[in-house]
Amino acid sequence: MSDWKEYRLGDVISIAGGFAYKGNLIGQGDNYLLGMGCVSYNDNFLDKGARPYEGDCPDRYSAKTGDIVLATRQQSDNLPILGMPAIIPSKYEGCRMIVGANLYKVEIKDNNFDNRYIYWLLKTPLYVNHIRSCQSGTTVRMITKANIEDFVFSAPSKIERKRIADIIWTLDDKIEVNKRINENLEQQAQTLFKSWLKKCQDEVPISDLAINVTDYSKCNHEQVVLINSSDVTEGHFDHHILSPNKDLKGHFKKRFQKGDILYSQVRPRNRHWGYCTFDADNYLASTQLMVIRNKEEIIPSILLYQYIIDDKVWMDFTLKTETRSGTFPQGNYEDLSSIKVPFGADMNKISSVLENLYTRIYNNEQESRRLAELRDTLLPKLMSGEINVNEVKI
Description:
By secondary structure, the chain is of the alpha+beta class. Helix content is 34%, strand content 23%.
């Protein structure tokens, strides 16, 4: 590591605050306003954080593809994004991007460094721990520009930095390819289901098809996976992390299994639902999630799931929930149980194809998780010099 040098981040990059936008201009227009919703602890960039914006701004608040933004605050420890980076993807090439308030825009001052390396530097445990040591606030965590600029790190030569960035981005690109494949598979599933739905003439209420599982029986596995409502989004399970099966919070009681449907009772507008395509013997769901289980196989579970997440059913359930009083309005199984589900010919044939599509999606997600684990294992070792970049073959 003789060619490694120590740097202060503020000498390598400059950081500028975001634009104080007008809320009434969000939702329309040709520009995109970037908010904290684009930042994720796991992903490079979340599209939900780039909203259409009808207003304009001074050029200093503009950003382009490849630029980095940082979250200036964090409202929940369950979403650890404080000081975390997002990098604007190529899909926004040619678009006017506006860096909104609660974000910092990053610009490279030292031309020997590039955005790709800096982005991954800001994902290392060393940087994350530095941010946590500097954060202020209790309910809302905050960070200042000075806190970020004072981060000190060691880095190798420019050539080695490029090799490190190439390795990490190669793994990340493979994850992105799987994501695009899954988006295509999901679209195929939706198209196939809607095509079949047009042929259906009979209906039966959900109450005749399924039960709401309230199985609070003890799980004897030493380690379990705890699934909260926020851990399933539009069919995707965000994690499969094992936790010790002891001293569990009281609301993690429901057991679910392959073929079950998870559907959030709290704020369903956020589309927290999922279909279990895997063996889930040691999985526990929060009481905030309904566990809907097919009881008589009048209709295959996958078709029941596709119908429950259909826009019309989802909107109806959401409206019932949102009209209730309370800080966190909740729906319940009764709100769904009376809804009538169409059924008809070729159900087994269609469900077999859908099950295959969802299994492929799950397998791609599993491969992406393995790639992410490899990436996250290599990242701190490469960035610290623990592993020689020339020894890594991808």
